[in-house]
Fold this sequence. Notes:
alpha/beta, 14 strands
Amino acid sequence: MDKNPCVATIDPKFEARSFDFPVTTERNDWQITPSAAKALIDNGYVVNVERSPARIFKDEEFEAVGATLVPESSWPTVPESHLILGLKELPEEETPLKHTHIQFAHCYKQQSGWQQVLRRFPRGGGVLYDLEFLTDPKGRRVAAFGRSAGYCGAALALLAYSHQLLHPSEPLPSVSAYPNQAALISTLKSSLSAALPQASSPPRVLIIGALGRCGNGAVDLCKEAGIPDSDIIKWDMAETAPGGPFTEIVESDIFINCVYLGNEPISPFVTKPQLEAAGKEGRRKLSVVCDVSCDPTSPNNPVRIYDTWTSFTQPTVPVELAEQGDKGPPLSVIAIDHLPSLLPREASEDFCRDLLPSLLLLDRRHEAPVWVGAQELFREKVASLDDGER
């Protein structure tokens, strides 16, 4: 049975910025897998997939399960009844949007430019189901890249730490996607093996948000890379409840922030004055920060030592500190907003496994709680737009 008008047109190219990969300059992570497309088709949905050389899953893999391949960037021309399923931000344009879009839009927490992004939907009569805010009746997200982001962020933090020990005056070179976790772990172990003779002990890694999905991923990566459990400091709400900044961060070698940023301000975890004071006193060991939360323009960002994103092409940005009297190592920040792209196939498979049950309810989206809640939140956010923005 064909469940029209519930037709999912899958578009992998919702990119506002491009990043370097081995064969393309687009992001490789993608939440719909061929197996999920097959499940939708088997349940009566029509699935159209835009052709793309960038996607980690090849066109032929979708064709093999019965999806229809359509030209790149053709989604604006499809009937309004089609659902547009993407991943990241749409191109930065003013064109009103007439379709229902399922994607990460990054416009619900007053990020930079949020009104310009959100206003396109009501102006065209479209609807946004933001993947970040799809929740079950208990308020828990139904799908997230959190574990993959934490895992990949920790990997890059260890790579940066190793590189910095061997080449203290050089930034970490560009990185590329790995075919699987085994290849990534092999690279990490080799890097650490070469670098650790330059250090007196294994790196002390402090992870805030360690009990969540993201933090679990970071902890798992550190263990798999061979970091002793005694050197993995796992913090969560209990440890941060007194409010920062925290001396323990400054005195660790690596800090990984896995805290989910909400709408409420958070006391800063670490500040430049704190780092500078510790450096002059010879207490600062911190050399690498990976901000997996990665929202430098948010007023609620608790890692207030940098102000820009990084990328796979330039994975780190230096933290500018007062050099006079500083006895600490060089300090850099990783702030990549598409960390799961480091392991694109596995990250997509994990995410899609969790998202699929909700996708299978799209034919009942006007009554299924996960989609009803998402539409109510969309309407609430649209109502918060300035009058001239609607």
